[in-house]
C-alpha cells in the first residue's frame, strides 16, 4: 500500500506536485533586458503549424528565451516542460510529459500512468497515452476537430542519448494526434528520423542561423543592458559576440563592470 501511495505521487505529479516539479511546467519569465524579435516570433507562429518543430543551437544561443517569449504572446494554448538531469529516468520523463499534457487535457494520463511506472512498459504506456490523446481528438461524437495545442519541451539534450527514452520519444512524436504540435529545444539534433519527417513535411527547424542576433537586435539588447554604453563599444561588443546571445550578455556585463570601476 505504501508503495502504491508513493507511486501515486509520481503518477499524478500535477496534483500532488512539489513546487520544484510545478516550476518545470512553466515557461521561464522574460528577463528585464528582453529584446523582442518579431521576425523569430513570426517564424515560430508559422513553424508550429507543423506536427514537430526542433529548435537546435549551441548553449546560450537564445533558444529558451525565444520560446518563452513566443509562449507568452501566442494565442495558441501552450504547455511547457523544462527537463533536468532527473528526467534521464524514463519513468520520470514520461511522468513530466504527461503532467504537461494534462495541463491541456486533464485526465489524459490516467490509463498510461501505471505503465510508465512499471519497469519495462514505457512503450506500452506511450501507446495507451497516444490512444487517449487521440480519443480527445475525435470527441465524444467522433466529429469534433480540436484546436491545436503546442507542447514545448526544453533542454532535450539532457535526456536524448538514453536508448529507451529516444525510442519512446520517437514512437510518440511519429504518431501525434492532429491537434498536438510539439516543439523540442535541444543543443543537438534529437535522435529522430529527421530526413523522413522532413520529406513528409512534418518537421520544421529553427537553428543558430536564424537565432543569431542581427546587428539591430544586438544593439537593442546591449543598450537595454547598458544604456550608457557608447556607440563604438556597442558596435565592437556586437561584432565580437557574432550573434551569440550569451556573448552579448557577457560583453554588456563586462562593459558595465568596467564603467563601475573608480
Ligand atoms: N531576446 C533576448 N533578449 C534579451 N536577452 C536574451 C534574449 N535571448 C537570449 N537572451 C539572453 O542570452 C542568454 C542565453 O539565452 P538562453 O538561456 O535563452 O539560451 P539557450 O539557447 O536556451 O541556452 P542553453 O542551451 O544553455 O539552455 C541569457 O542570458 C538570456 O537572458
Ligand atoms: Mg535554454
Q: What secondary-structure arrangement, pairings included, does this model have?
A:
Elements: H1 2-11, H2 19-24, H3 38-47, E1 52-56, H4 63-73, E2 78-82, H5 90-102, H6 113-117, H7 122-138, E3 149-154, H8 163-173, E4 180-186, H9 194-199, E5 203-207, H10 208-211, H11 215-225, H12 231-241, H13 245-260
Parallel strand pairs: 1-4, 1-5, 2-3, 3-4
Helix pairs in contact: 3-4, 7-8, 11-12, 11-13, 12-13
Magnesium ion (MG) binds near residues 63, 64 and 154.
Strand order in space, largest sheet: 2-3-4-1-5
Shape: elongated
Uncertain stretches = 1-11, 138-143
Strand residues, percent: 5-15%
CATH class of the largest domain: Alpha Beta
- What's the tally of helices? 13
**What structural class do you assign from the helix and strand content?**
alpha/beta
- Written as H for each helix and E for each strand, in order along the chain, the element string is HHHEHEHHHEHEHEHHHH
Q: What is the CATH architecture term of the largest domain?
A: 3-Layer(aba) Sandwich
Biggest sheet architecture? 5 strands, parallel
Record field, number of beta strands: 5
Bound molecules: adenosine-5'-triphosphate, magnesium ion
Organism: Jiangella rhizosphaerae
Domain AAA+ ATPase: 49-209
Protein name: LuxR family transcriptional regulator
Amino acid at each position: 500500500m505504501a508503495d502504491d501511495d508513493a507511486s501515486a505521487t509520481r503518477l499524478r505529479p500535477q496534483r500532488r506536485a512539489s513546487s520544484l516539479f510545478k516550476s518545470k511546467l512553466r515557461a521561464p519569465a522574460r528577463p528585464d533586458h528582453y529584446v523582442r524579435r518579431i521576425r523569430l516570433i513570426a517564424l515560430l507562429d508559422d513553424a508550429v503549424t507543423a506536427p514537430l518543430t526542433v529548435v537546435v543551437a549551441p548553449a546560450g544561443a537564445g533558444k529558451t528565451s525565444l520560446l518563452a517569449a513566443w509562449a507568452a504572446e501566442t494565442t495558441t494554448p501552450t504547455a511547457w516542460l523544462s527537463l533536468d538531469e532527473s528526467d534521464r529516468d524514463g519513468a520520470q520523463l514520461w511522468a513530466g510529459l504527461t503532467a504537461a499534457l494534462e495541463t491541456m487535457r486533464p485526465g489524459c494520463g490516467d490509463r498510461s500512468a501505471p505503465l510508465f511506472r512499471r519497469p519495462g512498459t514505457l512503450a506500452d504506456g506511450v501507446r495507451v497515452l497516444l490512444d487517449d490523446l487521440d480519443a480527445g481528438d475525435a470527441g465524444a461524437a467522433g466529429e469534433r476537430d480540436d484546436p491545436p495545442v503546442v507542447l514545448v519541451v526544453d533542454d532535450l539534450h539532457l535526456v536524448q542519448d538514453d536508448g529507451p527514452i529516444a525510442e519512446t520519444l520517437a514512437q510518440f512524436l511519429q504518431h501525434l494526434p492532429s491537434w498536438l504540435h510539439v516543439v523540442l529545444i535541444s543543443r543537438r539534433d534529437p535522435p529522430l528520423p529527421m530526413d523522413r519527417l522532413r520529406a513528409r513535411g512534418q518537421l520544421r527547424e529553427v537553428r543558430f542561423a536564424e537565432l543569431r542576433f542581427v546587428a539591430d537586435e544586438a544593439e537593442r539588447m546591449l543598450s537595454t543592458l547598458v544604456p550608457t554604453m557608447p556607440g563604438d563599444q556597442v558596435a565592437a561588443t556586437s561584432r565580437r559576440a557574432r550573434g551569440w546571445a550569451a556573448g552579448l550578455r557577457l560583453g554588456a556585463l563586462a562593459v558595465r563592470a568596467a564603467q563601475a570601476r573608480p
